[in-house]
Amino acid sequence: LGFSQGGAVTMSVAQELEKSHPDVDIRLTMCGGGPYDICATYDTLINNDVTDYPCAIPMIIQGLNDGMELGLDYNEFFLPKMVENMDEWLNSKKYPMADITRMIGSNRISSIMTEKARNKVNPSMTELYKAMMDNSAVLAFAPICPIYLYHSLDDNVVPFINADNMSYVLRNSNVIYNFGHYGNHMLTCLRFIYTVKTILENEKTDDADGG
After folding, report:
1. Which residues contact 163 (CB under 8 A, 6 or more apart)?
2. Distance CA 43, CA 97 (A)
3. Could you tell me which residues are beta bridge partners of residue 178?
4. Is 142's pLDDT higher than 90?
5. 147 band by pLDDT with thresholds 50, 70 and 90
6. What is the mean pLDDT of the chain?
7. How far apart are the first and last CA of the chain?
């Protein structure tokens, strides 16, 4: 189980285990608030421009650039203030996201990203979009194990389109959907933890009763 980035990782781990390690018996996969579709997440944040965590986009780009060894020129993606402060604000790991947002001084993506990086049809974006697609969890996937998918329609960090697109992939599978107006990302995380705790406690009781 996992929530937010952990929710996307959980989904990917379930996919990999069922594909390459069928001997591993998964009883239940529980994913909450996950960015399963990185392209859709990027597009939605760019289109909305306003987000509670504008540093999420630099984190996505830097993570893909480092992990996939893309060799991107950050000056093509970020405005000078962001380029100059990325190591201190993001990579030092000294600051929580709320502090980084205060240091950025704006909750608009356009305040840290170049116009070129906010244009998905720009040729220089091709390599980044391919990396985002290759690292997304919205792949053809028909899980054997049941999946519990949880997301708030009001999520202010990971857009609900992620759950919507993941649902389409899983539409013919054994999936329990729990979508609703559960508040922002952090409030939803707390609700998810409580809900998971209740479900697992009930399963434990059923097992003890021989159910």
Report:
1. 34, 36, 149, 151, 179
2. 21
3. 150
4. no
5. very high
6. 91
7. 22
Quickly count: other Cβ atoms within 10 Å of residue 121's Cβ: 7
Amino acid at 96: P
Structure tokens at 13: 């781990």
Distances (CA, A) of 210 to 44, 60, 145, 177: 46, 45, 20, 26
- Judged by average pLDDT, the poorest of 19-23, 34-38, 106-110, 204-208 is 204-208
User: Could you give the residue ranges of the DSSP H alpha helices within the chain?
Assistant: 5-20, 38-48, 56-68, 80-86, 97-104, 126-134, 161-169, 185-208
194 CB neighbour count, 10 Å cutoff: 10
Read off the pLDDT of residues 130-139 as tens digits, 9 standing for 90 and up: 999 999 999 8
Residue 140's CB: how many other CB atoms inside 10 A? 6
Dihedral angle of Cα 93, 95, 98, 104, to the nearest 10 degrees: -90
pTM of the model: 0.87
CB atoms within 10 A of CB 211: 8
Q: Are 136 and 158 in contact, with CB atoms under 8 Å apart? A: no
CA distance 188 to 183: 6
160 has a pLDDT exceeding 90: yes
DSSP conformation letters of 101-157: HHHHT-SBGGGTB-TGGG-TTSGGGHHHHHHHHHT-S-S----SS-EEEEEETT-SS
